[in-house]
Amino acid sequence: MAKPPSQDPRNPDGFSRRAFLKTMGVGAAAAGLVHGASEVAHPSQAIILGPDAVPLALKINGALHTVTVEPRVTLLRALRNHLGLTGAKEVCERGACGGCTVLFDGEPICSCLMLAVDAVGHEITTVEGLGTPERLSPVQAAFVECDAFQCGFCTPGFVVASTALLKKHPNPSLEEIKAGVAGNVCRCGTYSRIFEAVQKAAGQRG
Ligand code: FES
Ligand code: FES
Fold first, then answer.
1. Given the CA of residue 189, which atom of ligand 2 is nearest to it?
2. For residue range 135-146, what is the model confidence (pLDDT) as tens digits?
């Protein structure tokens, strides 16, 4: 007979990593599954998701989108491959470059490190949601005016991270700007112009 979890010497806490991950995914997913969106999952009523695709309701740039993805799909892949929002870039896929930065309830995160299912019930803002080509956000406009890019591949991530920074610190010092975008990498080395653009967006430069 199997021992109760608490008596298992390999697992004295009685709670496996697998069980923990299942519980994490279940709570978020059950709350945002398109069918039964109002249900509140209780661990005893756990719904195991996958491996097949499941429909999720994601709030992105102020609008609700339904996306049908396997539970293993990252938020970045869901945005790019399933919703056509290709502003966030897939570069390192390990949280090391910031190319995939989006806002998660207003906070910058690496969307390559989050499962789409865990974004259910939260506000996601991508670079597409900050402004349009006809009506750029102040940060986007400052990047253009300061020529703050070369290849431009890192630019969406920097724009999103800078937008979050300026919301918290409307008048940041140069050191605060550097710290605010420290998670973003520009392989072309355009940092000085990026910092200048953030200062310009903050109204510190004419
Ligand atoms: S692609 Fe997400 S941090 Fe690099
Ligand atoms: S402009 Fe090329 S990586 Fe930043």
1. 4
2. 999 999 999 999
